[in-house]
What does this fold into?
Amino acid sequence: MEVGIVGYGACVPRHRIKLEEIAKVWGADAPSYKRGLLLREKSVPTPDQDTITLSVEAARHALKRAGVDPKGIGAIYIGSESHPYAVKPSGTTVAEALGATPEIHCADMEFACKAGSEAMFVALSLVKAGQMDWALGIGADTSQGAPGDALEYSASAGAAAYIMGREKLVAVCEHTNSFMTDTPDFWRREYQFYPRHAGRFTGEPAYFKHVLGCATNLLQRTGTKPSDYRWCVFHQPNGKFPQRAAKELGFTKEQYEQGLLCPILGNTYSGSSPMGLSAILDVAKPGDRIFMVSYGSGSGSDGFVWRVTDRILEVQGLAPHTRWQLEHDPRYVDYGTYAKFRGKIRKLSE
Amino acid sequence: MRDVAVIGVGMSEWGEVWEKSHRRLWTEAALAAVDDAGVDRVDALYVGCMSGGLFVGQEHLGAMLSDQLGMGPVPGTRVESACASGGVAFRQAVMAVASGAHDIVLASGVEKMTDVDGAAATYALSTAADQEYECFQGVTFPGLYAMMARVHMHRHGTTRRQLAQVAVKNHANGALNDKAQYPMKVTVEQVLESPGVADPLRVLDCSPITDGAAAVIVVPLADAKKLSKNPAVKVLASAQASDTLALHDRADLCWLASTAKAAEGAYRMAGIGPGDVSFAEVHDCFTIAEIMVMEALGLVEKGQGGQATEAGWTALDGKIPVNPSGGLKAKGHPVGATGIAQVVESVLQLRGSCGARQVRNARRALTQNMGGTGASSVVHIFERA
It folds into this structure.
C-alpha cells in the first residue's frame, strides 16, 4: 500500500531584514558573515504572525491542493520550537481554524529544528497503519536568535504543511528512516527567551554527523545513489551546511538549488527542510525522486525518499508557490522595526 | 651535568577532536613516545599544560597522568608557563636527566581547548596576559599582537603582504604534515581577504584553537644506544628567560627580549651561532610573532624578518627553513603541547624521517616556544648524535 503526500503548502512572512542591517547594529563584518554563512537576508514575522497563524496559512494551502474535507483529517501534529503557549497546544487552534474539529487527534511536537519532519513522519505512519485516512503534519517556527549572537543572522519564520494519505497522492513516500544520538549542541531551557548553542560543536559532531549518517543509511537501505534523484533537500541552518552535506554525499547544485531557500529565507527551524521540499514540489515533474533529510539539535535527522506522481501537475497551481512567496514584493525593515516585531524591546506595559 | 638525548617521540591526533578527552589525548601521545623509544618504564614525567582548570575543569595533572599511564608511583609534575608550558616542561625533563635525578623521563604537553566556546577559550588564554593592567582594559592576545605588528610595520617598514607570506609558507609546510590541523595551502590574497580580527591581523594571521598532546622520552646520552634502536638526538642547549608580563612595560614593543636572552644562553651553551642551525621550529602564534622571533633568534637582522620571509629565506628549501612542521599556524596550537611538538618535529627532522617536508641536510635544530607576548621564552638546540 502506497502512502504519501496528498496536499502541501507553505507560508512565508512578507517582511525581511538584510544581513547588513543586523551586522551594522553589532559592528560585525557583514561581508565575512555573508561569505561564511552564505546568507543574504531572512524573513521577519510581524507581531500578528506566530507559529499558529503561519501554520493555519500553510495548512490552508495544503487543503486546497489536497482537495479533502477538513473534517476527514484524523490527526494534526505541529512541530515547532516557538509554540506560542508553554501549556496549551498550537494544534487545537489550527485545527479549529481549518474546520477540522472535533474528531481529530492532536499533539504539538518539539525536537529543535527536526520537529516539522517528525510531525510529517508521525502523520505518514498513522495513515500507513490504517488508523485514519488523512493526517496533517506541519513544521512552523518564528525562531529566535539572541541579539548579537550568530543565530540572529539566520533565525527566521515560516511554515510548511503536509496532508498525508493513501489516495490522490502527489508524492509517494518510498522510504523513511531516522538517526539520533544524545548530542546537545543547541538548547533552550524553560524560562529562557533565547536558545543557546555550543558554537563550532554544532557543525561536525552535530549537524554533519546526523545528516550524513541518516542520508548514508537512507541511500544504503534504498539501494540508491545520488544520481537516482532529481532533487535533494537538507535542513538549512545557514547556506553553507546543506551545500557541504549535499556535495559530500555526491549531489550536485542542480539537485539542491531549488530547495535551498536559506540564503534569502533564513533558518525557519522546524519549517526549514519541509519548506525546501514544498519549493521542490512546486516545480517537480511526475516520476521525479526527491531525497530529503532534516536535522534537529539534540540531535537527530529524519530521512525521506519521495517519488512524485502525475497528480502533482494538477495541484501545483492551486496555491501560491513557496519561491513566489519568498521573492514576490518583500518589505524590508530596519533593525528597530525588526526588534519591535520580534519582541526584543520591552515596553512599560509588559 | 650529564649529556642528554631524546630517543622517543609521539603525538596524539591534533585538531577539533570532539570524541577524545584531555586525558585520552595525553595518553595517546605518551604511549606513542614510549613505544617509539622502546622503553618499558619512565622514572618521572613532566606535563606542560596552560589551563586544564579553565578548559576542562581538571588540575592536579601530574598525579592524574602518572596514574593514567599506569605508573602511579612515579613523580608527575605539571608545568605552567602559558603557551610556553610545553617548552618549559621539556626543559625540566632535561634538567632532571642532566642532574642525575632521573634516568628515563617523559616530557609532555597537552591542551584540550574545544570543550569550551570561543569566548571562554579567549578568556582562558587571556590569563597569560597581565590581568590588572591589560585584560581589565579589554585587550586580548590578538589585540596585543596587532599592536606589536603595527609598531613593527611603522618602525621597520614591514608590510601587510609580508605578514601574509608567513601564513602562506607555514600552510604550505603544514600541507605536507599528516598531523596538521589545517593542512591546506592558502594564498596571500586569501589571507588578506580573510575576516578581520584585530587590525592589521586577520583570521589567517592567527593560529587556531586546538585539542592535542605531544610527548618525548629524555634519557642520558650515554644510555641512549642501550635503551633504544632509534638514532639519538642530543640536546645541545636549553635556556629560558623572562620579560615584563605586560606589553606596555617594554622599552621596545616589537622586540622579544626574552627570546633574545634565551637564544643568547642557548647559543653559548651549544657553542654555536645562529648561522650553524639547519632549521628552526618557532612560536608563530600570529604571523607577526614568527617575524619578531626570527629577529630575536638572530636568524635575520633586527627589522628584517618580513623581508626575509618575502625573499623565501624561511621556506622549506630556503636559506634557513622556519617551521617545517607548518608551525602553530597550520599544525595547530594546543598551547601546553606546542613546545613539545616542536621537539617532536626537530627529532623527526634530525632522524631524516619527515618525508615530503624533510629539510635537506638537517643537522642542527632550534626550537623556540614562548608564553604571552613573550614574557617567557624557552630555546632548545638539538643535534644528530
About this structure: Chain B has two domains: 4-117+209-233, 139-207+236-384. The first strand of chain B starts at residue 4 and ends at 11.
